[in-house]
Fold each of these.
Amino acid sequence: MNIKKAGRLAAVIFLFVCSFYAGTIAAALHKDSPFPPSVTASADGNWGLSFQSEGKPPVANASADELKQYNACYADMTDEKIIYLTFDAGYENGNTEKILDALKKHSVPAAFFIVGNYLESSPELVKRMLREGHIVANHTYHHPDMSKIASVDAFQKELSDLETRFHELTGEIMPKYYRPPQGKYSTENLRMAKELGYRTYFWSLAYVDWYQDKQPTREVAFKKLLGRIHPGAIVLLHSTSSTNAEILDELLTSWEDMGYRFGSVSDLPR
């Protein structure tokens, strides 16, 4: 990689991290939680959650029924002990191979929501994800605040540009599974995504795992990820987290010991 190209890649990574922090920090900081203590039900704004009962799905910005009308979801509303594991992949920093190794060891399917930069910088990892049975899905090409995009054409372009590059790289068609960057959305976004044939995936469990210079300890990670797991959880982790890479094998074992099995987001009820 020449110096000019490396500089552009560094700039993309910097902008991705900054935009992610800006969009999620309000919903991520709380004394004992990666979520605010309470939320107001709404189909507009930043995705947020409030955990109220151990072993139960959190209260979210929008209810499952409200999201369903837009072909969107944040959890499987079931009593079955099933987990849907997802990763947001904005760039690669050396942790994904270990994550994939752990998933392969446990035969766990996952969905990786990627951006355009990831296709450019890590094509072999994308191919490995597909080869090992994982879903590679759409987190937009440039990771913008999609809630500020009013034009259907501009909204679609962020998604279709990624799909086109994915097809050029892999020869496969990217499934129309979409996760809003930064968790920012609006009812108009959800409506546009549905009309364009997409299913929108939020999440019901995540934790603050994205600060590269302040990674959570394994104790903090296990407290959040074991203490707040619940039947039907859509779990969001970041593939850039060294903590996630280090603990994933043990985490999957712990969830299995708790009686959970793992499903694919493609099998979530519609």
Amino acid sequence: MRRRHLIVAGASLPLLCPLPGLAPWTRAMAGDAVPFDASTVPALARELAARPFRPPSRELPAALDAIDYDAFRDYRFRSDHALWRDGGRFQAQLFHRGFIFKERIDLHEVEGGRARPLPYRRDRFDFGPQPPPPDDPALGHAGFRLHAPVNREDYFDELCVFLGASYFRAVARGLAYGLSARGLALGSGDPGPEEFPVFRAFWLERPAPDADTAVVHALLDSASVAGAYRFAIRPAGGQTRMDVDARLYPRVALRNAGIAPLTSMFEFDHGDRAGVDDFRPAVHDSDGLALLTGSGEQVWRPLRNPPEISHSGFQDNDPRGFGLMQRKRDFADFQDAEARYERRPSAWVEPLDRWGPGAVHLVELPTGNEFADNIVAFWRPRAPLAAGREHRYRYRLHWCADHAWRPELARAVATRSGLGDAESERPRQYVVDFQGGRLDALGADAAPRVEASASAGELRNPVAYRLEANGRWRLSFELWPGDARVVELRARLLDAAGAPLSETWLSRWPS
């Protein structure tokens, strides 16, 4: 793990304390195997939500409480102690507590309909030159990761990791860790402090020897809400698929809930380098927000590193999907031999139920480096989530290099802007390159129609033409903002009958 991901994942984790009466969780922590089925964690979450939230302790033995980043890196799980090494396509390894991961997360293994705790065992870890901590079974763990054959059949790659608050990440074939997902966002991009729910306990189902899917259950908690999650995790070809079943039980009405949140990093790109002094042409884990609306419109919104916090909402009803995507896939796009940003995964959220009215929110924070995630995307329902009842959201999360929605549409592959040619009023020139779909089949003398608009100011000289150098189609226009402080831009290419040839490109000025 890179240091940036360690730091981001460790935000504000409560410590798990036994809660009287919460069977089987309480009894399992005492060492007994207890019955477990699909209703177990939802029942625990409902009962937890009925109790006042109690901020737990973050206490650790002194030896763990004081270790720094370098010492913590020496704490490594021994792969020969991985769960399920005796057969099958999945293995599990556990994370030690310490450094910024001070909070105890309780882990359980489920087999044959019974759950048994996974107490801390010092012999499962290698501490390098560091003195080992006390061998206390009650110490607990910080999280876990799953391994599976991803890139080749004879090696168990790290597949996904659950570590820090409600953060989790995954990879797929040929990809490395990049952006993260979360169980729930509360107040992201809104005025006031953000609330970070935490997965306080996990139940890992032991997979059958021939199973192609691993199942994990999680208990979420925070001051405002408790929740029960079920993850069905399946590496399949070029993607890793997670089917997520989230049941939320708010303690108070939630007006600022973010469902299926994704968190990523964008510092700069080829067409957004103002003030950048860096040998690399681009630095980002994701380069755009993709939307597939309830009406079937495919939308692309390039990400920005704004001068101040930017919060956008894209209204929709029963969305078909959204995601933070990494479209650039060549080493030449980044020229970074260490970070290898071209190998960072995209993450696409596909609702499995009707989510009703609401909006996909995009929060962009200013950043001067690549070490902190500054991009958040999530779904926010229009109506608040009422307290005292269950709210259920099921969705499929695709971790992948690419994802096809409407293959007949050309995709925006590059966005650039700069000062226009006029000597007064300083217009902004935009060029957007499209490639793929039916657009590629048009002859050189074809004339796609340009549909472009601006929410304020004036948009002039829209035109589309084919680039001889690479065969792409380029859409170009000038924005004359006038007195406007913010302008929302929208453009796409149409055929002669008015049907879309490209996805819809969105942007905001100033960028």
Amino acid sequence: MSADRSTPSGSSPPIRPAGPLDTAWIAELLRDRWNAPTIVVHGESIDAGRLPALIAGNRQGLATYRVLGRDAELVTLDTIPAGTGTGTALIEALASQLRTADCHRLWLTTTNDKLSALRFYLRRGFRLIQVRPGAVDAARKLKPTIPLIGEHGIPMHEEIDLCRVLDFAAAEDPPALPPWTRQPGQATGNMP
């Protein structure tokens, strides 16, 4: 995931839901930033271009997401340019919207090379939950355009799941497993 590297400046851009007139721009941005609108993560192919999305300002940022029961997943986050507080504004607007929809947790997955993204998300209340060794290598079988080398010349091999608890009264802190790894009917709490 790309991420904005700063804290918000004095004024955050307005955030709005994506609409039909944004479809072509979203597809173009996802192709530019992710090599395709399809994101391959935790063994799934997700068409991010078809997901609900929030847009910052005059298309200065995009957050695509999906709701999975009482959990939600931030699938992509991109800002243009980075470092202006737009990523933070998108995360906070999404968190607020999800709380209103009775979601308890916001999840995301990044890769082992994204040191700036890890710093960004950890500073915004996300916690490390799980590392999946070799998950990026497996994802390349579904999406060969995933690079071998990522940021800072780091070979990309692992996926890292992070979680931000949105409702401390209703959600356990932190849950043991992300929603895409739970079996139907499995509890969300920490495993013994």
